[in-house]
């Protein structure tokens, strides 16, 4: 059943003021207009809402019940309108999903700030790889996604989504130490096993592009999400893989710079197109854009492993 909320408001006013004439005067309408709107509401609901009593009318039992419901309905409509007003105070639950480093570096400082400045904004955080996050955004299961791609493997979030870049960082080739810290000769690792991410194909695509340019096809041997576990495998001699160039590693691992071509990871804030004016989302997007972000050190991460990005 579809009901015009303007007519509900007139019915509620009739229940409070007691006469069509007073409702009409209050809203600068004619008595005939008010009568017609109440009649139209009765047709929409399929119930008799008023009955004559002398020269006046009064609400029927159905009319009184609908007037009681109108209080709740109109309050909910007003709350929704205020919530969607881009100039309203941010209030509500924001659902954010993203990759571990993006959450740790970009989102957690914002959440900590909001706890003091906007306590009525509740942020719910889940960890997802970009492809997973894109699908959840499209299904309206997330409000904001923190994703990434590589310059050698750009992501395609889809026309219904819009992405804003947050920060970029160079990646290098992680190999067993000791090794001279000089631009990597990727071809020298043609016979090595390679380590890539298990839940996202972006770094594997970047690895295959690097290898193709160096004249070989890489042997993908391991699929690992945790940066610390990637280092474990490299240390044990089980393979080589991409690692952030400015992330401190253990002594047994050397990260060689990549020069031709470079590998650059870019982090993004991704939303459904047209949703970014919702006050809680706008608040967090503005805070993310204002940051000067760096990748965390091992101490910053508290020893926890993150996804390969």
Q: How is this structure best described in words?
A:
35% of the residues are buried. The strands form two sheets. Strands 3, 4, 5, 6, 7, 8, 9, 10 and 11 form a nine-stranded mixed beta sheet that branches. Helix 1 crosses helix 3 and helix 1 crosses helix 4. With 309 residues, this protein is of the alpha/beta class. 39% of the residues lie in helices and 24% in strands. The longest helix is centred in the N-terminal third of the chain and has 24 residues. It folds into two domains: 80 residues, Arc Repressor Mutant, subunit A, CATH 1.10.10; 202 residues, D-Maltodextrin-Binding Protein, domain 2, CATH 3.40.190.290. The protein starts with a helix and ends in a 19-residue tail after the last helix. The protein contains nine helices and eleven strands.
Topology overview:
Elements: H1 5-17, H2 20-26, H3 31-45, E1 50-53, E2 56-59, H4 61-84, E3 92-98, H5 100-117, E4 121-127, H6 130-138, E5 144-150, E6 161-176, E7 193-196, H7 202-214, E8 219-223, H8 227-235, E9 240-244, E10 253-257, E11 263-272, H9 279-290
Parallel strand pairs: 3-4, 3-5, 7-8, 7-9
Antiparallel strand pairs: 1-2, 5-11, 6-9, 6-10, 6-11
Helix pairs in contact: 1-3, 1-4, 2-3
Organism: Rhodococcus koreensis
Protein name: DNA-binding transcriptional regulator, LysR family
Family: Belongs to the LysR transcriptional regulatory family.
């Amino acid at each position: 059943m579809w009901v015009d909320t303007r007519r509900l408001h007139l019915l509620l006013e009739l229940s409070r003021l007691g006469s069509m004439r007073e409702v009409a005067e209050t809203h600068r309408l004619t008595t005939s207009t008010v009568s017609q709107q109440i009649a139209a509401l009765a047709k929409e609901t399929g119930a008799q809402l008023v009955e004559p009593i002398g020269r006046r009318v009064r609400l029927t039992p159905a009319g009184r019940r609908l007037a009681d419901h109108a209080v709740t309905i109109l309050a909910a409509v007003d709350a929704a309108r205020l919530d969607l007003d881009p100039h309203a105070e941010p209030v509500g639950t924001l659902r954010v999903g993203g990759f571990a480093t993006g959450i740790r570096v970009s989102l957690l400082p914002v959440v900590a700030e909001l706890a003091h400045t906007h306590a009525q904004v509740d942020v719910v955080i889940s960890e997802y790889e970009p492809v997973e996050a894109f699908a959840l955004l499209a299904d309206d299961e997330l409000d904001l996604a923190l994703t990434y791609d590589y310059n050698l493997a750009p992501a395609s979030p889809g026309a219904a989504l819009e992405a804003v870049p947050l920060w970029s960082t160079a990646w290098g080739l992680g190999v067993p130490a000791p090794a001279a810290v000089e631009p990597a000769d990727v071809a020298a690792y043609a016979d090595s096993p390679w380590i890539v991410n298990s839940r996202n194909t972006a770094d594997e695509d970047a690895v295959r592009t690097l290898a193709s340019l160096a004249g070989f096809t890489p042997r993908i041997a391991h699929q690992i999400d945790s940066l610390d576990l990637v280092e474990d495998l490299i240390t044990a001699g089980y393979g080589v893989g991409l690692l952030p160039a400015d992330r401190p590693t253990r002594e047994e691992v050397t990260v060689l710079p990549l020069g031709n071509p470079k590998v650059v990871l870019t982090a993004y804030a991704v939303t459904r197109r047209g949703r970014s004016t919702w006050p809680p989302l706008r608040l967090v997007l503005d805070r993310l854009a204002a940051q000067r972000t760096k990748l965390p050190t091992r101490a910053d991460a508290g020893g926890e492993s993150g996804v390969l990005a």
